[in-house]
Specification:
This protein has about 325 residues and is an all-alpha fold. It has one domain. A hairpin with a 2-residue loop joins strand 1 and strand 2. The termini are close together.
Length: about 325
């Protein structure tokens, strides 16, 4: 069993916290809560979503590479077990979320109401925020196919980028085309994580990435709330790429020590935080409605959603149902 990589756990913790904060901002925006602070909420939301999902997929790819790939050969048995785990997690928590939203729909506290069609289409149209698990299942399956045809031994990132940009040139609103573009975009980052070599991180392109990020960052801040700039896919791709790379470099260099305990702890429980936090962010958005101070309201929602979710995780660990809930098919092979 491989030893945990501390800076990766800290990076996972950082990314998971961003997920919570991003969903808190998204919830307030969609519910028109905290009126008068829409610009700040958009700044927080757009800033986080400009890079944190690509970063999460890079981390996921690196964890897969570290846990399941040796000498460019994939341990298909372990990956298949993980696929079963992901399918279980996706179906269980998606159905649970649908049940909660469907039952509370009449109370007017749910931003996106659901119908029976949402449940029927759950295998082809994932519900937010569990589309991440849905995509991971597809990416794991693609890795197995790549392994069978020896593509894991090659670097096809440039080829995937060419396909993505060619498809992006076509102005199509067709669901299947948009879905393919979406999957290729995030698979590029996932595949970059798979091919990422820990020993060579920051040794190449770091200065170029920092300078490019600064230029893109200034541009992005100037046009952050512009629909036009966010619709330029190549701009978003480059910004997310450079930003993710710089963050990875910083975490590898400075966050590999034991004293980053909080981030490390959150990272070890990032999956649990990801699938459970949305219930608490919704609850606190409603519960804190009378607190009009934006910073107090937003901070309490974000902080307590994280703390109470992690407290619940510790509770289910103590009563020995954690593995049944999160890893029913995955025991010894769980990444440590």
């Amino acid at each position: 069993m491989k030893e945990r990589i501390k800076w990766i756990d800290s990076l996972k913790g950082f990314a998971a916290i961003l997920v919570v904060i991003g969903h808190v901002a998204d919830g307030y925006l969609n519910s028109n809560t905290l009126l008068g602070h829409g610009d700040i909420l958009k700044l927080v939301f757009n800033g986080i979503y400009s890079f944190h999902l690509p970063l999460f997929f890079i981390i996921s790819g690196f964890v897969v590479s570290n846990a399941y790939i040796k000498n460019s050969s994939l341990n298909r048995k372990k990956v298949l077990i993980q696929i079963k785990n992901l399918i279980y997690l996706y179906l269980f928590f998606s159905i649970l979320q649908w049940c909660v939203k469907y039952s509370l729909g009449s109370l007017n506290i749910i931003n996106h109401e659901v119908s029976l069609n949402n449940l029927k289409l759950i295998l082809i149209e994932p519900m937010s925020p569990y589309w991440y698990l849905y995509d991971l299942i597809i990416f794991y399956i693609i890795l197995i196919l790549f392994d069978k045809i020896n593509l894991l031994k090659k670097n096809i990132v440039v080829f995937l980028m060419m396909i993505y940009f060619i498809l992006s040139m076509f102005d199509s609103n067709t669901y299947i085309v948009l879905k393919i573009i979406h999957l290729i975009y995030y698979f590029i980052f996932f595949y970059l994580g798979v091919k990422m070599n820990e020993k060579h991180i920051c040794k190449k392109y770091c200065v170029i990435s920092i300078v490019s990020l600064l230029i893109l960052n200034v541009t992005y801040i100037i046009f952050l709330n512009s629909e036009y700039i966010r619709d330029i896919r190549i701009f978003n791709f480059l910004f997310a790429s450079f930003c993710s790379y710089v963050i990875i470099c910083l975490f590898k260099k400075y966050f590999s020590k034991n004293y980053f305990y909080v981030l490390n702890y959150v990272g070890k429980n990032s999956l649990e935080l990801y699938v459970l936090h949305c219930y608490l962010t919704t609850f606190f958005r409603v519960f804190l409605v009378n607190i009009t101070n934006f910073y107090v309201n937003f901070s309490i929602n974000s902080l307590f959603s994280i703390i109470l979710t992690l407290a619940f995780v510790e509770f289910i660990k103590k009563i020995n149902i954690h593995n049944y809930l999160f890893y029913p098919f995955k025991k010894e092979v769980k990444y440590k």
